[in-house]
């Protein structure tokens, strides 16, 4: 490929109750709700975006919350863990913070120069907080419920579970431009660019695991960055030429997207960095009002009637 990604853009998962989702990701994890909109393919449900102060690519975890949807099953053919980056000295604080809020956490695991703390959100989605000794220079959202010195800096990595690694690794290298940077038993790490936080994917080979079922508590897709629309067009043409079954370019209002599956089964997306989340509301007011794309505005009254009301906490209110 003549183009390569610079790292993760976002991860999108499926939740159940939207209010419970908002409370956990804002109050417990301290992220910012940077956009409240709807699933453009199913406007009867929200699409909630959480990230840093501006919702920069590489900071974003997003959700489709379907209250009546069944619970999914994590397994092969999915992204089974979404990891966030936190400061090197903050793992102990996070373990205490989560435990005090009733979140069941695992033991801190050390691997190479990283420490990782794992837990699940209220819908069972597997989350990890990872601290690297070299730190993460990205600025956090500093007006949330977590003190800035401990706050999440952005995405760290995702883990793809597969029954065999070769074909998945081939697509990561040949079609996304990643390179392998590590191997530990049945775990293979690939990186974009210099391989810092937000540029990593682990491929976990678990032939004994069942196939995953995408529903509540599972990841729907993993998105990788493209700098602009011109690059994305070129990327799509090259993917098609290589025989990849890829969608047309779709307008997601805040970025443009193409979708395809890696051979292990996980749905991947290539999303543009632009135009970003401040195109339809001021930066200081991100996420607090329901925003619809122009083609759905005529249906606003109907859409608002279908959506449950969200009680959003006041920004700058801290738990201490």
- What topology, given as strand order, has the largest sheet? 2-3-4-1-13-16-15-14
Largest β sheet strand count, sense and barrel closure: 8 strands, mixed
- The CATH C-level name is Alpha Beta
CATH topology, what is it called? 2,3-Dihydroxybiphenyl 1,2-Dioxygenase, domain 1
Total discrete domains = 1
Note the beta-strand portion: 25-35%
> Given the structure, what is the number of helices?
5
Topology order in helix (H) and strand (E) letters:
EHEEEEHEEEEHEEEEHEEEH
- The count of β-strands is 16
Question: Would you kindly provide a written description of the structure presented here, covering whatever features stand out?
Answer:
- The chain is an alpha+beta fold and 320 residues long.
- The chain contains five helices and 16 strands.
- The strands form two sheets. Strands 2-3-4-1-13-16-15-14 form an eight-stranded mixed β-sheet. An eight-stranded mixed β-sheet has the order 6-7-8-5-9-12-11-10, with helices on one face.
- A hairpin with a 5-residue loop joins strand 15 and strand 16 (267-272).
- The longest helix has 13 residues, at 229-241.
- The N and C termini lie far apart (49 Å).
- Pfam families: Glyoxalase.
- InterPro entries: Extradiol_RC_dioxygenase, Glyas_Bleomycin-R_OHBP_Dase, Glyas_Fos-R_dOase_dom, VOC_core.
- This is Glyoxalase family protein.
């Amino acid at each position: 490929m003549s183009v390569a990604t610079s790292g993760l853009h976002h991860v999108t998962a499926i939740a159940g109750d939207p209010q419970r989702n908002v409370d956990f990701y804002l109050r417990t994890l301290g992220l910012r709700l940077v956009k409240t909109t709807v699933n453009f393919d199913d406007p009867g449900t929200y699409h909630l975006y959480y990230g840093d102060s501006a919702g920069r690519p590489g900071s974003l975890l997003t959700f489709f919350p379907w209250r009546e949807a069944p619970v999914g099953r994590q397994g092969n053919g999915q992204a089974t863990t979404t990891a966030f980056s936190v400061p090197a000295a903050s793992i102990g604080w996070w373990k205490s913070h989560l435990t005090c809020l009733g979140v069941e956490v695992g033991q801190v695991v050390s691997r190479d120069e990283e420490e990782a703390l794992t837990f699940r959100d209220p819908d069972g989605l597997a989350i990890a907080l990872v601290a690297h000794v070299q730190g993460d220079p990205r600025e956090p959202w500093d007006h949330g419920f977590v003190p800035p010195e401990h706050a999440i800096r952005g995405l760290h990595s995702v883990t793809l579970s597969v029954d065999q690694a070769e074909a998945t690794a081939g697509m990561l290298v040949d079609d996304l431009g990643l390179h392998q940077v590590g191997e530990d038993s049945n775990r293979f790490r690939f990186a974009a660019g210099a391989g810092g936080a937000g540029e990593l994917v682990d491929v976990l080979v678990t032939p004994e695991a069942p196939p995953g079922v995408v529903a509540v508590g599972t990841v729907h897709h993993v998105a990788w960055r493209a700098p602009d629309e011109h690059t994305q067009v070129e990327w799509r043409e090259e993917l098609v030429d290589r025989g990849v079954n890829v969608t047309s370019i779709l307008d997601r209002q805040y970025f443009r997207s193409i979708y395809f599956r890696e051979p292990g089964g996980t749905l991947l997306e290539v999303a543009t960095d632009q135009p970003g989340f401040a195109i339809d509301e001021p930066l200081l007011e991100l996420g607090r009002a329901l925003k619809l794309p122009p083609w759905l505005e005529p249906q606003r009254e109907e859409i608002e009637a279908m959506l449950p009301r969200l009680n959003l906490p006041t920004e700058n209110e801290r738990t201490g």
